[in-house]
């Protein structure tokens, strides 16, 4: 597994990097079958340290955790506990859904845009009806089953996930509804 351990405007020592690799490696090897890489970012927010961890698995799933503490090691330990709890909850479901998958999930490239919000007065008429593009990024669309897509959305804590349905070979969307249920759009 590849580790990327960095700090935003703070220095990360070799001892902390070693501690992160050992502790996170134990958690991931215990609960996840095929992790590919881990990204750990430390930052400072006023008097607290913040630790954000993202783990990508070859099954296409991404697990994320974030924790705050007054000491940097305590922030990492709290984040590691959250990650362990999250992976433990999904271990049984991950094994059931991915037992037959021999190859990693296929990812397809797509463009992602951030559009400017229209917060001007209603009386102001826009010059054109074209939205203003604030940012353009490259994103990946995974090829998953519906069950895997729901798990991916829940693990990432995202409100919506666009995926390529591997059974029907078309783009689908799963989303969290206001009533707490999951919606699935299959055009």
UniProtKB/TrEMBL annotation:
<dbReference type="InterPro" id="IPR032528">
    <property type="entry name" value="Ribosom_S30AE_C"/>
</dbReference>
<comment type="similarity">
    <text>Belongs to the HPF/YfiA ribosome-associated protein family. Long HPF subfamily.</text>
</comment>
<keyword id="KW-0175">Coiled coil</keyword>
<dbReference type="GO" id="GO:0043024">
    <property type="term" value="F:ribosomal small subunit binding"/>
</dbReference>
<dbReference type="InterPro" id="IPR036567">
    <property type="entry name" value="RHF-like"/>
</dbReference>
<comment type="subunit">
    <text>Interacts with 100S ribosomes.</text>
</comment>
<dbReference type="Pfam" id="PF02482">
    <property type="entry name" value="Ribosomal_S30AE"/>
</dbReference>
<dbReference type="InterPro" id="IPR038416">
    <property type="entry name" value="Ribosom_S30AE_C_sf"/>
</dbReference>
<dbReference type="InterPro" id="IPR034694">
    <property type="entry name" value="HPF_long/plastid"/>
</dbReference>
<dbReference type="InterPro" id="IPR050574">
    <property type="entry name" value="HPF/YfiA_ribosome-assoc"/>
</dbReference>
<dbReference type="GO" id="GO:0022627">
    <property type="term" value="C:cytosolic small ribosomal subunit"/>
</dbReference>
<dbReference type="InterPro" id="IPR003489">
    <property type="entry name" value="RHF/RaiA"/>
</dbReference>
<feature type="coiled-coil region">
    <location>
        <begin position="73"/>
        <end position="100"/>
    </location>
</feature>
<protein>
    <recommendedName>
        <fullName>Ribosome hibernation promoting factor</fullName>
    </recommendedName>
</protein>
<comment type="subunit">
    <text>Associates exclusively with 100S ribosomes, which are dimers of 70S ribosomes.</text>
</comment>
<keyword id="KW-0963">Cytoplasm</keyword>
<comment type="function">
    <text>Required for dimerization of active 70S ribosomes into 100S ribosomes in stationary phase; 100S ribosomes are translationally inactive and sometimes present during exponential growth.</text>
</comment>
<dbReference type="Pfam" id="PF16321">
    <property type="entry name" value="Ribosom_S30AE_C"/>
</dbReference>
<feature type="domain" description="Sigma 54 modulation/S30EA ribosomal protein C-terminal">
    <location>
        <begin position="130"/>
        <end position="183"/>
    </location>
</feature>
<dbReference type="GO" id="GO:0045900">
    <property type="term" value="P:negative regulation of translational elongation"/>
</dbReference>
<keyword id="KW-0810">Translation regulation</keyword>
């Amino acid at each position: 597994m590849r580790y990327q351990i960095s700090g935003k405007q703070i220095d990360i020592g070799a001892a902390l990097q070693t501690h992160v690799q050992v502790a996170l490696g134990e958690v991931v090897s215990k609960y996840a079958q095929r992790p590919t890489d881990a990204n750990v970012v430390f930052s400072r927010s006023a008097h607290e340290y913040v630790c954000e961890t993202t783990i990508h698995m070859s099954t296409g799933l991404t697990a994320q955790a974030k924790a705050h503490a007054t000491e940097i090691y305590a922030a990492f330990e709290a984040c590691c506990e959250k990650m362990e709890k999250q992976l433990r909850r999904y271990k049984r479901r991950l094994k059931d859904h991915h037992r037959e998958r021999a190859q990693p999930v296929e990812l397809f490239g797509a463009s992602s845009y951030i559009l400017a919000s229209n917060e001007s007065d209603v009386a102001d008429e826009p010059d054109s009806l074209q939205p203003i593009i604030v940012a353009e990024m490259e994103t990946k669309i995974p090829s998953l089953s519906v069950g895997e897509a729901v798990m991916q959305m829940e693990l990432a804590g995202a409100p919506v996930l666009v995926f390529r349905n591997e059974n029907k070979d078309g783009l689908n969307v799963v989303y969290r509804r206001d009533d707490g249920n999951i919606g699935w759009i299959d055009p």
